[in-house]
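Q: Glycosyltransferase, please. Structure only.
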Amino acid sequence: MRIVIVAVGTWGDVGPYTGLGTRLRTAGHEVAIAAHAPFEAMVRERGLDFRPLPMDIRDELGSTEGQQVLRTSPLAMGRFIRMYARHWVTMAEATEAAVDGADIVLTSAMGWLGVHVAEGKGIPSAGVYLQPMDPTGEFPPWLVTTRSLGRWGNRTAARAARTLGMLPFRNAVNGLRARLGLPSSTPGAFFRHLDETHWPVFYGISPTVLPSPVDWPPHRRTVGYWWPERTPGWEPDQRLVDFLASGPKPVFVGFGSMSGGDAAQLGELVLTALRRAGLRGVLQQGWGGLAGAGDDVLAIGETPHDWLFPQMAAVVHHGGAGTTAAGLRAGVPAVPTPLAADQPFWANRLVALGVAPRSLPYHRLDAGALADALRAATGEPSFAARARELAGRIAEEDGAGALIEGLPLR
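A: Structure for Glycosyltransferase:
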């Protein structure tokens, strides 16, 4: 069976599908990932086909407007939606080309144009999401807030947010639907159709970390994480190997694809916090170019988290879904520093799970607060014990296997 995964977003929005795609390929299927051009090498190096989508997400987030997007407010989310909406006509055309010849289309949360294309071409489709998108009374929609609005308020806000969030794309969507010979639609009608047809969504989220809410239907469920596939033949930098062996376990600090602010200033803040906490550090540069120098600090480039994190005393990160998952898998305490989008949701979840002492919003981060959180995360045994407990339970899950069993794959 020929499977196309439409994965729109940053590295963290694409990486998990390399692992899922590899498992699908091992099960005998042909797999292609449609993603932004900067991820072509990452996909092809893992033996998967690649289908290009327009827009360089790294350039967009590095722009002046992109910096405004990296906030935790509803206004920032509106800017993010407008940023994507400008590219949606070309995105629709590229998505249509990407799924040509597919037997089934799997779409990420932001890859939902693939649902319209699949409908027009008569191809089965399903959602493969990394963030909770379906309305529930159990928690508020992360698109809007992290504060509970009550069960009725949470569900109502989630329905409104997902519908309003699609309004800027309406013209592009209906242009696509017209080319496909489909009637025009509205966001409300789109979601009603998905609900009425029991369109399946598999959430690549550990049910240990976020159990499927009781008010979700059975065709929407958390099945377990999909782990990014390592680059074949990868070997660690010898400098990093030597640094890890030269002293106590260090703390990892990295903000992934986020590039919110002055890298030099942020690096100095992190170094100060590490010195105050009396800890060594490994700083991953990421898209923001985080850097720092010192006898007890090493700056590194891209390094697989599944190899690196188990060797850390704690991980400081932006709270992205993938990095959150990697830290939990490694069984180490966390200090989340969320910037935008779903990051505050995952940061709060880490605190609630007992593996993080507190959440430190990135744009209010200071050296003193970070040092205090690091001392707590590494010095209070309860955080490490809880992290190890959760890691053991996550290790027993098989998210990719659950998806393969649940899809109509022949």
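A: Brief note, in case it's useful. The domain at 2-203 is CATH 3.40.50.2000 (Rossmann fold).
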